[in-house]
């Protein structure tokens, strides 16, 4: 992964440097070529205008007062220059000795300011030509009638030096461009390597994490600001994993602890029954005890399975209109009748339920939530002479259910453990027809989270109050999703 990132960053940076180098080289060449070409054109233009200033009118003809010896590059030689002059009627007036009897072309057009173009010289070399059309004013009698006589001059110089300089310029630009591209690629690779060292270090730290020995956090060298959030996220993830692993270890230990007692009892009963197989009366008692133990083990496994299903959202996916008053009445009646030997049937209760409150939720999940809350209130009511109070009220857009019971033996520290798996105030209450495993309130908390119901336990003056806050379904309208109001 790090090699891929480094390769991508290095390649992207190297290509960027290469593109910039090509752009800079082309721009440099075009500018330098334009400057060199302008220098040659300036030299040609200077020669052209020098010849024009030496042109005079003599009585009835145009004469160039110029000797080739004054400008030896117009003489025949290895690399001569050329000029030629025409009268207004295009008759040849003068030509350079280097031209001999040959003629120069008039060029692509006439321009009083001069026009330059590339032209093959008479000797076959590449050249640069310029022509000027101008009036001859020197020596002309201005008092005479008629316009000034017109003349045209064409000058050609070799561009061999220019082409040689341009060739050298291209070669130097190519060499510099290649070197710049190579150095840029190397610099890009080194920049990517140095810039990703912190990422490489963090990757090694993550690779070195042993699932069996999770560190507290990834600490060490200072990191760039871009990696702070990543390290903080990883540290938060490690913390959550540690908590999850610790919780699952506690759950596994608690399940093993819960199952160890009934398994030991089952082994003892069956061993005795096998030792005296002919004792029919004892065999019957052993079967009854084994059945009771199996029921307890089934209760444990069923509770754990139900909690796992609630956490994975495998169940309780329905959403129906539920009238809370009737549901609470039914669940309350069922909870009291199911208590059996654990509580006195005559335990008083005060129900104050507002009618007509409808919520949109899963009725099966609500039955489990209410059943567990009523079961805990009935089972752990410390004063059997004081009633358990249950009220349902409407508060704005919410419905609030409050269940209160006397809990003088419960502390604030106990309340903080209510939602922990397998936690029980009385660790001994694990037997009987309705064993308490410490999963009821955990299941309630998980289902409330799934259904967006705000759950809260408060302890005040020895009285424990559990409140549920629902989002009320608006009448005569499509039900809205249940809103989480846990921050209220």
Question: What report would you give on this structure?
Answer:
Helix 4 packs antiparallel against helix 5 and helix 6 crosses helix 7. Helix content is 47%, strand content 18%. The C terminus is likely disordered. It has a five-stranded antiparallel sheet. A five-stranded mixed sheet has the order 9-11-12-14-13. The protein is an alpha+beta fold. The relative contact order is 0.07. It is rod-shaped. Strand 3 and strand 4 form a beta hairpin. The two termini are 46 Å apart.
Brief summary:
With 488 residues, the protein is an alpha+beta fold. 47% of the residues lie in helices and 18% in strands.
Overall number of strands: 14
Whole-Å distance between the termini? Answer: 46 Å
Radius of gyration: 52 Å
Oligomer: single chain
Please, how many helices? 9
Going by helix content, strand content and strand pairing, the class is alpha+beta
Overall form: rod-shaped
What pattern of helices and strands is seen along the backbone? HEEEEEEEHHHHEHEEHEEHHEE
**Main β sheet profile:** 5 strands, antiparallel
Average pLDDT rating:
76
Query: Helix proportion of residues, in percent?
Result: 40-55%
Fold topology:
Blueprint: H1 2-53, E1 55-58, E2 61-64, E3 82-87, E4 92-95, E5 115-120, E6 126-135, E7 150-158, H2 160-195, H3 197-207, H4 225-275, H5 280-312, E8 320-323, H6 324-338, E9 349-353, E10 358-361, H7 363-379, E11 388-395, E12 398-406, H8 412-416, H9 440-450, E13 454-460, E14 463-471
Parallel strand pairs: 9-11
Antiparallel strand pairs: 1-2, 3-4, 3-7, 5-6, 6-7, 8-10, 11-12, 12-14, 13-14
